[in-house]
Write a structure and sequence with these properties.
The chain is mainly β and 658 residues long. It has six domains: 39-136, Immunoglobulins (Immunoglobulin-like, Sandwich), CATH 2.60.40.10; 142-230, Sandwich (Immunoglobulin-like); 237-320, Immunoglobulin-like (Sandwich); 330-342 and 354-418, Immunoglobulin-like, CATH 2.60.40.10; 426-514, Sandwich (Immunoglobulin-like); 555-646, no CATH class. 12% of the residues lie in helices and 42% in strands. The termini are far apart. The model is unreliable at 1-11 and 556-658 (pLDDT under 50).
Length: 658
């Protein structure tokens, strides 16, 4: 083989040329990229939903993404488009088109959500604002059953479908309004097995729910499908005989299904179980009858089950409670017992099943009608009245709740009895109300009958305020008025009361306080002295009056004549001051003077001539008193009456007394 020999210089230049060419191409590409990046800008991206954001189920919906790009080159650019629903990519494509559309065929509710799109060009990326799509209206599901007539315990296959809907969903089956079963499904179809526990016509429906975060959308219900379920055996009935039982009495329970489908099972195939408070007493071998004795340990809620071919039916519950015989009743009175006033007697048993009959007895004899108590904590009550204190101990009461054999009698009623007070007696001490001033005066109030304590009050007649109030257990109370005074004279009474609150008043008793003996002696002496003085004064006046008359009689009787023409006559009548001054001092002798006739006095003054042979004499006056007696009108003059009499007294010139 011949080797090719190259020129050494040519071999050295070729690799260098290739290297320079590669560097030049890389620089050109880098320049082009740098130039492109500097002139390309994605200004905005817009998502449009057509025909609108709210559409009905089954409508075609178009999502269109429109970017706005600024580029300095005329070269076509590749755009990377991506569509999102709830941040999950639903469609992506790369194209040189300036916009891109994505169509959702026959949109369903499951297609509802928040949509957006993004565009990527030469490393630049931008998203549109989110837009919401709301698709309304779920397809109504269709329900199919494989059987229309079944017997209790048979299985029915039910199929519920909504073929036009997609997405994760739950299917629900209903028997009437009762939710029977829930079936999850990833398809638009769900099947389940239904078993009916009771006979009769059944109505079965279904609906489904699609999950749309964060909500669930529920479809309408399907049209109902009818099943006629035939009874395999009837629901058992639990009975008790007798309906009630007292402690130590026997009772029995019976569990029985009256109707059984003889075509499918025999009566012996139905097994019964008895329960008390949910705990089985007799398992499946229980023949339906159970007998026992009533006592507190067997109280509870009883029921039974009937089972055949995996079908279980339960009876109603019977609440059993052994009745308790009455205990010995207690007899009591809640308030006071007052003789003569009605009061209430109560009778009650601590133990004993209701109802309980109570009877009140007096000396073992029924007194009133029977009282029937039906409510817990209720007591029987009887109204009675006693006339004597000791009659209270005659009462007892009887109670029964199961005939004569259950009858119990209480103890004798033993309570305190209050006897009202009798009319009190008021006694004045001492001397039964006739006392002398200074003696101690007592008012004693006595109660003969009644229950203590007593409240005694003393009153003076005419006053509502008591003089004294005392509370005492004694039957006699004493009020001290103190040393007797004249003002104590009057009428008094006392009022007695006790817890019976029936106050009684005594009769009024008078108190007479006489003067003290020394006062009587003093009064008698004073009266004697006064009488003596009056007699003395009367005698003196009488003597004085008599003396005046005797003096007047001794005077000479002659006609009076004046001695001078200058005579001055003064008449003194009864109404003059001088006469009145004289008569005022004689008031006490008015009886005597009243019988005297009216008297008129005349004073005559005679001037006296001067006598030189005699010494100086007092110039006097000659006074002449003329007394005129006038008979009162209609009164006859006394015998021997001569008419008016004139007394003249001449005062001659007599020396003036020293």
């Amino acid at each position: 083989m011949r080797a090719t020999r190259l020129h050494p210089l040519g071999m050295g230049l070729r690799p260098l040329y290739l290297l320079l060419l590669q560097l030049l191409l890389q620089l050109l590409a880098t320049w082009q990229v740098a130039e492109t990046q500097t002139v390309l800008i994605i200004e905005s991206v817009k998502l449009t939903i057509l025909p609108g954001q709210h559409v009905a189920s089954g409508t075609d919906v178009t999502l269109r993404c429109d970017p706005k790009i600024t580029s300095g080159t005329g070269m076509p650019l590749k755009h990377g488009y991506t569509f999102y629903r709830d941040s999950t990519s639903v469609y992506a494509n790369e194209t040189t088109a300036s916009s891109l559309s994505h169509v959702i065929r026959q949109a369903r509710v499951v297609n509802s959500g928040s949509y957006k799109c993004s565009v990527k060009v030469h490393g630049q990326y931008k998203e549109s604002d989110p837009e919401s799509l709301n698709v309304t209206g779920l397809q109504t599901p269709v329900l199919l059953l494989n059987k229309a007539t079944v017997t209790e315990g048979e299985v029915v296959t039910a199929s519920c479908s909504a073929p036009k809907e997609t997405g994760s969903s739950f299917f629900f089956y209903f028997e009437g309004l009762k939710d029977v079963v829930k079936v999850p499904a990833s398809k638009s179809l769900a099947e389940t097995q239904l078993k009916f526990s009771s006979p009769g016509n059944k109505s079965v429906t279904c609906h489904y729910r699609i999950s749309l975060q964060p909500d669930l959308v529920t479809s309408s219900r399907s049209k109902p499908s009818r099943v006629y379920v035939q009874e395999l055996f009837s629901r058992p009935v639990l009975t008790m005989e007798p309906p009630e039982a007292f402690e130590k009495e026997s009772f029995s329970l019976t569990c029985y299904s009256h109707n059984i489908s003889d075509q499918r099972i025999q009566r012996g195939q139905v097994k019964y179980s008895l329960y008390r408070n949910g705990v089985v007493l007799k398992p499946g071998d229980f023949g339906g009858n159970f007998s026992t004795t009533a006592e507190a340990s067997r109280n509870g809620n009883y029921s039974c089950d009937a089972v055949a071919k995996h079908i279980r039916k339960s009876s109603d519950v019977i609440v059993f409670k052994a009745k308790v015989l009455v205990s010995k009743p207690s007899i009591f009175i809640p308030g006071k017992v007052i003789v003569g006033k009605p009061f209430r007697i109560h009778c009650h048993c601590e133990n004993g099943s209701l109802p309980v009959s109570y009877t009140l007895l007096s000396n073992k004899v029924p007194q009133q009608s029977v009282v029937l108590v039906r409510q817990p904590n209720e007591t029987a009550s009887f109204w009675v009245t006693v006339r004597r204190k000791e009659d209270v101990r005659n009462f007892t009461c009887e109670a029964e709740n199961n005939g004569h054999s259950s009858r119990k009698e209480s103890q004798v009623l033993d309570v305190a009895v209050t006897e009202p007070v009798s009319v009190p007696t008021l006694l004045i001490m001492p001397n039964f109300g006739s006392v002398t001033e200074g003696e101690e005066l007592f008012l004693a109030c006595t109660v003969r009958e009644g229950s203590p304590p007593f409240t005694l009050k003393w009153y003076r007649d005419g006053s509502d305020q008591p003089l004294d109030t005392q509370m005492t257990k004694d039957r006699t109370g004493l009020h001290v008025l103190g040393p007797a005074r004249r003002e104590h004279t009057g009428a008094y009474r006392c009022v007695a009361d006790n817890p019976a609150r029936d106050a009684r008043r005594s009769e009024l008793v008078r108190v007479s306080v006489s003067l003290a003996r020394w006062k009587l002696v003093l009064i008698v002496v004073s009266c004697i002295l006064l009488l003596t003085v009056l007699i003395g004064v009367g005698c003196y006046r009488y003597r004085a009056q008599r003396g005046k008359r005797e003096t007047a009689t001794e005077l000479s009787v002659k006609p009076s004549s004046p001695k001078s023409e200058d005579s001055l006559t003064v008449s003194l009548a009864h109404d003059t001051d001088a006469y009145n001054a004289h008569t005022d001092t004689d008031d006490q002798s008015s009886v005597e003077t009243a019988k005297e006739p009216d008297v008129e006095y005349t004073e005559v003054v005679h001037p006296q001539p001067a006598d030189g042979s005699r010494g100086p004499v007092r110039r006097g006056t000659d006074t002449v008193y003329s007394e005129l007696q006038n008979s009162p009108a209609g009164v006859a003059d006394p015998p021997g009456y001569q008419g008016s009499m004139e007394f003249v007294q001449l005062n001659h010139d007599l020396p003036e007394p020293v």
